[in-house]
Design a protein that fits this description.
single chain; about 190 residues; 4-stranded antiparallel β-sheet; about 15% strand; binds heme C
């Protein structure tokens, strides 16, 4: 019996040491994350659409190629966070998912298969930084560059993509699929 109580005390001590976020902190990071993702996706998709109008898909791809990462980096610096977009099927090798992000991507894929809603997540990552994740779903307008070759993806776009991204995995998607996630890392809590 004595060892049983000892075990309970040990469990309590261990769980007290395990860092976690309070309800209030979770709400705070969730709101911040929602806001940052909203402005970052508006910025990316707004510029993408205007480039499409200016010079068609080739111009838009050139814009994504040169500017998608610098834009998210700059917006991250402005908000004092790291902003990343990643996926199980990446186009740009620089967007490779971390171990934590892989877990989140699989979690969302499972939810999708179960027909459940995909909501943003907040957690403390192993390095002690609060993290926010949100799903990125495929919309019809994405298929021109992320759809199936010879179907939504014209051979002209397919060949531009092959030159710029020889290891591109981000094709063959359908509307509603999980394209990837937004991953935002906040500064470590002092
Ligand atoms: C005009 C072509 C084009 C369209 C339309 C487009 N994308 Fe992309 N997408 C790209 C290119 C090019 C990249 C690689 C960007 C880079 O080099 O950082 C990319 C990268 C991404 C990434 C980063 C992860 C990765 O694979 O490297 C995500 C997420 C993404 N796109 C989602 C979307 C979604 C969602 C839509 C629709 C709302 C969309 N894209 C529409 C061309 C496009």
């Amino acid at each position: 019996m004595k060892s049983f109580y000892g075990f309970i005390v040990l469990l309590l001590v261990l769980s007290a040491c395990e860092p976690s976020l309070s309800e209030k902190e979770i709400r705070h990071y969730r709101e911040q994350g929602d806001e940052i993702v909203k402005s970052a996706s508006e910025k990316l998709s707004g510029t993408l659409m205007s480039k499409m109008k200016e010079g068609g898909a080739a111009e838009a791809i050139a814009f994504c190629h040169q500017s998608a990462l610098p834009i998210t980096k700059k917006m991250g610096a402005y908000h004092d966070v790291d902003i990343k977009r990643t996926s199980l099927k990446i186009r740009n090798p620089e967007n490779l998912p971390s171990v934590e992000e892989l877990k989140v991507l699989h979690y969302y894929e499972d939810k999708l298969v179960e027909g459940k809603e995909l909501n943003p997540l907040v957690s403390l990552d192993p390095s002690g930084r609060p993290s926010y994740y949100a799903p990125i779903r495929v919309q019809k307008k994405c298929l021109m560059c992320h759809g199936t070759p010879k179907k939504e993806l014209s051979s002209a776009i397919d060949s531009i993509l092959k030159v710029k991204y020889p290891e591109d995995l981000a094709i063959g998607y359908n509307e509603g699929d999980l394209r990837g996630i937004w991953s935002i890392s906040f500064p470590e809590i002092e």
